[in-house]
UniProtKB/TrEMBL annotation:
Taxonomic lineage: Bacteria, Pseudomonadati, Acidobacteriota, Terriglobia, Terriglobales
Protein name as catalogued: Amidohydrolase family protein
Organism of provenance: Terriglobus aquaticus
Matches recorded under Pfam families: Amidohydro_1
Domain Amidohydrolase-related: 59-408
Keywords noted in UniProt: Signal
Keyword Signal listed: yes
Alphabetized SUPFAM superfamilies for the sequence: Composite domain of metallo-dependent hydrolases (SSF51338), Metallo-dependent hydrolases (SSF51556)
Family annotation (InterPro entries): Amidohydro-rel (IPR006680), Metal-dep_hydrolase_composite (IPR011059), Metal_Hydrolase (IPR032466), Metallo-dep_Hydrolase (IPR051781), OTAase-like (IPR057744)
Gene3D superfamilies: Metal-dependent hydrolases (3.20.20.140), Urease, subunit C, domain 1 (2.30.40.10)
Top-level division of the source organism's lineage: Bacteria
Keyword Transport in annotation: no
Amino acid sequence: QPIVETVEYIKAGKLFDSVAGRYVDGAVLVVEGARIRSVEGKGFPIPDGAKVIDLSDDYVLPGLIDCHTHLTARADKYDEINAFRETPFIAAINGVVNAKKTLDAGFTTVRDVGSPPFAAVDLRNNINEGYIPGPRIVASGPAISITGGHGDLNNFSPEVRPMLYPNDRDFQIADGEQQVQQTVRAQVKYNVDVIKILASGGVLSKGDQPGAPQYTLSELKMAADTAHQAGRKIAAHAHGALSIKWSILAGIDSIEHASLADDEDIRLAKEHGTYFVMDIYDDDYILQEAPKFGLPKEQIEKERGVGQKQRETFRRAWKAGVKMAFGTDEGVYPHGDNAKQFHYMVQFGMTPTEAIQAATVHAADLIGRSDDVGQLTAGHYADLIALKADPLQKIEVLTSVPFVMKGGAVTKDTR
Ligand code: ARG
């Protein structure tokens, strides 16, 4: 069979080198199929009649990566009562709609960390097959929770047996090392890329406290060891200091939220090379918008207890040298608004360059895809965004991305 050469040339006015953290002027990206074949210098002779994409007036950056999304959720429907009303298919419908919004916002890769079994896996597969548009997805299953924990449905009558418990193997609720091990293995069986575990209580759940640990150190260790044995990374939702400490000591790869990390947590995270993924935009949305659609007082009060502290923790942890990757908890706020968080990352201690690195090269490292995404060099996917204004001068310009390419194909161009 003849090999049809599908080479295109992208002229980049300013190409952001996400590893070095600076622009290169006038580079030419040679793209073959979905990947970058080479990056050539200014004045590279492009063959006559070749396909050229002219971004020579633009700032060209690697496609952005969000390490904490819930594509199958809806931001205006937090109420757990919906679990009793909705069919499982709603998650898939949400996922199809939200995947497109996310890609259009310039996020060409996401790590999706919590969805009904196994909506994110199906979404990933269908996007990879080209059946529906969306970002590359590193998919988890349901977030694993203790009984009565952040991932359980609490404060209902004991007469109500949620459909989440069709039998004892619901992929989500697990108590004790043996159940945790079995649940991780069961998720791996259904082809998740990553495990998500709920190490502490949460804000948007009922009847629990973000500051309080839920899993024990030995349960977390079993989860991490089982995931790693299967070649999967594991992310832990942890707001409170003790749950963060136990997660790090258990060998978890990233701490999600990390809101109330203390100095010892920060020291341990550095020592173990554990990433913090801190969703520091959400506080705005939860306090300003969520009450309008009836978020109960219990959750609003819990948010007041962590929101601003989390931003201060972000500042301390970054200053201390903790590794950080961009993650927003997309789905808490409306899908596609992911880049609103950059403003706060800069306000609370990162330079714009560092914030973009957190959403490109460092995010790729955390999700284990450094060879594929996060930088625009030979061998990587041709996943990129282009902007008319310089995000290093004004980070907020990332909230409206006019040009998106994923795998060498233009998926959006409104320049
Ligand atoms: N899913 C998280 C929880 O319910 C959201 C926390 C959002 N608040 C924040 N300040 N980051 O715990």
